[in-house]
Amino acid sequence: MDNIQRFEEEEDSGYIKIDRYNEDKIAAVADHYKDILGQLGEDPSREGLVKTPERVAKALQFLTHGYDLNPAEILRSAMFREDYSQMVVVKDIEVFSMCEHHMLPFFGKAHIAYIPNGHIVGLSKIPRIVDAFARRLQVQERLTNEIRDCIQDTLMPAGVAVVIECKHLCMAMRGIQKQNSVTTTSAFTGEFAKDKTRAEFLRLITANLH
Ligand SMILES: Nc1nc2c(ncn2[C@@H]2O[C@H](COP(=O)(O)OP(=O)(O)OP(=O)(O)O)[C@@H](O)[C@H]2O)c(=O)[nH]1
Ligand SMILES: [Zn+2]
Asked: Under CATH, which number does the domain 2-67 receive?
């Protein structure tokens, strides 16, 4: 609940008030899940399951709270004029999202870079916008492009690079049941269209520098 409180406190920074956590919505979603438990052959009134519909409703609301965030505002809230024109790379950002096809998790890492063009952005805002887009029903390709577009359109840097690598539980615990396959997606703008710049980014995200 800490996150929720923070979102509510900082309405001017893109952490827009969440009305998805209101009691009526939780109760409505929970009612459906009570039905679903019955349809699955369970007894929703047995002790271990009594509070499950409400727990699921709250979990789902958390897992989709990105709809209530404004990623561009989050970036805008910490942009600083700065004369730095080298690549800034934030790598190994944990990603947790849910595929829109099965509503099962996909998770992994995002690696993001931009080349400033007069402005830098507060570093924490990069993972924050990853979360703002990831905490929605997604496909990995759209998640990748949305992050790229948000940084490009808001910060207007000389270039943006986004690489995301994820495991999809809908491919691991059901369906094709491939436990170890990883999907990589990428999106680039501006300077990253150049082979040399893109190669430097790829080298930095694969290097073990720390
Ligand atoms: N491109 C893309 N596909 C995804 C993502 N997440 C899940 N999928 C795929 O979405 C597809 C949905 O295909 P359908 O044939 O409609 O669904 P399905 O019958 O459950 O497919 P299987 O998973 O093959 O059993 C599957 O191939 C999933 O692997 C994603 O982030 N990007
Ligand atoms: Zn899926």
From this structure: 1.10.286.10
- The residue ranges of every structural domain in the chain are 2-67, 79-206
Give the position, in ligand 1's atom list, of the atom nearest the Cα of 175: 25
Q: Which residues touch 59 (CB under 8 Å, ≥6 apart)?
A: none
Residue nearest atom 22 of ligand 1, based on CA coordinates? 175
pLDDT by 10s per residue, the chain, length 210: 344 444 444 555 666 555 556 788 899 999 999 999 999 999 999 999 999 999 999 999 999 999 999 999 999 999 999 999 999 999 999 999 999 999 999 999 999 999 999 999 999 999 999 999 999 999 999 999 999 999 999 999 999 999 999 999 999 999 999 999 999 999 999 999 999 999 999 999 999 877
Sign of CA dihedral 115, 119, 124, 130: negative
Q: Any known ligand binding at 99?
A: yes
Q: Determine the residue of 97, 99, 101 to mutate for testing ligand 1's pocket, defined as the one with the most ligand atoms within 8 A of the Cβ atom.
A: 101
What ipTM was estimated for this complex?
A: 0.91
Active site residue 170: yes
How far is Cα of residue 169 from the mean position of the Cα atoms in its chain?
A: 16
Backbone φ, ψ for residue 94 (5° rounding): -65, 135
